[in-house]
Amino acid sequence: MTGIDAPTHPFDTAIAVEYTDAHRLAGHTCPDYANMVGPFGGVTAAALLRAVERHPERVGDPLSLTVNYAGPIADGPFEITARPVRTNRTNQHWQLELTQDGAVTTTATAVFGIRRDTWSDLELSMPSVPGPDAEDVVPQIFPDFIAWGRNYDLRFVAGAVPDVEPTAEIPENPDSVSTLWLRDTPVRPLDFASLTAMSDAFYPRVFLRRGRYLPAGTISLTVYFHATPEELAAQGTEYLLGRARANRFGHGHFDQIAHLWGHDGTLLATSHQLVYFKG
């Protein structure tokens, strides 16, 4: 059995997994990271990533993670299976399942790899916005039923969460773009697991477009990790800057794309989602 270190931060408690045999791990949901239905999807994705990170056969660092939320996760224990399906010279492919009482609730694939020194360039620049301590950049307060939101310091530059009970005077928004500073609270040094969860910390874009809360949930989430371990370490506990938007709404679904930059302007991750909604 491969043990785990005693968690020292609520986030580490929420994603704690322990190997019970070569490819099987035990975990438990955490009420601090509860969402409207089940746990916060970002913390589930982070637990799946952590399962691969702790596997003795793991090679390299995360390059991508795709999580498909097949069904609701109930409060309580869960089990993860994590198997490497192929290891190449510079990348390694994984298949994962999260189950409860023998039923699959979540499936995932991950790609880990060894980053090489090559030519590089950045076409997408960090937006120029006021800093997190600017007077008009106000921390977001979430309603009580979104417990996971209390574990993040979210400071919106634009596109804040609409009021829970909007009035007739609150119009629909002309676009779905949100720009915000974010970090863990209490503060925690950034790593791949916390970057994974933050990639899902953008509320559903349909809330912003319609100006109110609607039933919605992520069906599939993919995170592309651009950062190296050294680039993550350089962020420390500083705020990241995130920007999210959708491209099309219709027929009960919409897409959502997000980018996360470090405080030094380094593009750390890109995420894509497919989200269902009603209304």
UniProtKB/TrEMBL annotation:
<dbReference type="InterPro" id="IPR049450">
    <property type="entry name" value="ACOT8-like_C"/>
</dbReference>
<dbReference type="Pfam" id="PF13622">
    <property type="entry name" value="4HBT_3"/>
</dbReference>
<feature type="domain" description="Acyl-CoA thioesterase-like N-terminal HotDog">
    <location>
        <begin position="31"/>
        <end position="113"/>
    </location>
</feature>
<dbReference type="InterPro" id="IPR029069">
    <property type="entry name" value="HotDog_dom_sf"/>
</dbReference>
<dbReference type="InterPro" id="IPR052389">
    <property type="entry name" value="Sec_Metab_Biosynth-Assoc"/>
</dbReference>
<protein>
    <submittedName>
        <fullName>Thioesterase family protein</fullName>
    </submittedName>
</protein>
<dbReference type="InterPro" id="IPR049449">
    <property type="entry name" value="TesB_ACOT8-like_N"/>
</dbReference>
<dbReference type="InterPro" id="IPR042171">
    <property type="entry name" value="Acyl-CoA_hotdog"/>
</dbReference>
<dbReference type="Pfam" id="PF20789">
    <property type="entry name" value="4HBT_3C"/>
</dbReference>
<feature type="domain" description="Acyl-CoA thioesterase-like C-terminal">
    <location>
        <begin position="137"/>
        <end position="276"/>
    </location>
</feature>
